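Tokens in:
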């Protein structure tokens, strides 16, 4: 119960911090809506109509997964701010598991990403993206399944960094290539061998593919089937948690 209480307390702290940060709220909600509202209809008019496919739906599912994954991953940057303010030292000397501390942080950032997912789905409905009750329920579960390993990926990256300034410089280089390698805006079938390999080792790819599995069902839009994507995402979460937490705790001890 003590471990569970610690996890929930740390998660609650991140949710409260979001509610007090109006700038972050505005940025978190604006960029995904711009991508869907401008890029989706533009590509549909330029390419989708000619090809006979609806790129608005395709981009909607990609941006939904990308936003939740990135929000959760980048949210754990505050672990470095906590380190610089010595808050992390205070929680790491508390009698709770290091993994509970990291898990609480990931859970908090995953909950922070949920309002963004709701806003994206609502905006998609306004633009004409159709939903069935089954799709909405599946997307709700998929966003949770995407957010948690996204946060674990953030911990993995941050375990190798020393300051929040470094994180702000490195994260765009980590995230931006994955937008295209994961197929957020573009199909990734038939890529050249080198790009195909990079795409397969891109963690965001499976988050995007999982979301399309849920939305499109058996329509054949997703690259892998639902069980395969869930298996890969689960394995990623375990790997990122073990390596990332060990690295972050080692960095704390060496300070």
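Residues out:
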């Amino acid at each position: 119960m003590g471990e569970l209480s610690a996890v929930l307390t740390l998660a609650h702290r991140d949710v409260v911090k979001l509610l007090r940060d109006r700038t972050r709220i505005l940025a978190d909600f604006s960029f995904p809506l711009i991508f869907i509202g401008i890029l989706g209809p533009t590509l549909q008019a330029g390419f989708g109509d000619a090809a006979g496919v609806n790129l608005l739906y395709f981009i909607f599912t990609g941006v939904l997964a990308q936003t939740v994954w990135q929000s959760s991953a980048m949210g754990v940057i505050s672990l470095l701010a906590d380190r610089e303010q010595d808050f992390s030292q205070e929680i790491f000397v508390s009698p709770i598991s290091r993994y509970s501390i990291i898990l609480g942080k990931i859970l908090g950032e995953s909950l922070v990403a949920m309002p963004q997912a709701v806003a994206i789905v609502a905006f998609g409905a306004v633009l004409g993206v159709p939903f069935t009750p089954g799709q909405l329920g599946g997307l709700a579960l998929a966003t949770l399944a995407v957010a948690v390993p996204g946060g674990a990926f953030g911990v993995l990256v941050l375990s190798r960094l020393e300051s929040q300034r470094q994180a702000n410089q490195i994260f765009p280089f980590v995230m931006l290539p994955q937008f295209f390698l994961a197929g957020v805006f573009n199909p990734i079938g038939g890529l050249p061998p080198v790009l195909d390999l990079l795409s397969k080792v891109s963690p965001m790819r499976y988050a995007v593919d999982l979301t399309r599995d849920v939305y499109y069902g058996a329509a054949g839009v997703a690259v892998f089937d639902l069980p395969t994507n869930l298996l890969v995402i689960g394995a990623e979460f375990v790997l990122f948690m073990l390596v990332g937490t060990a690295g972050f705790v080692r960095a704390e001890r060496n300070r």
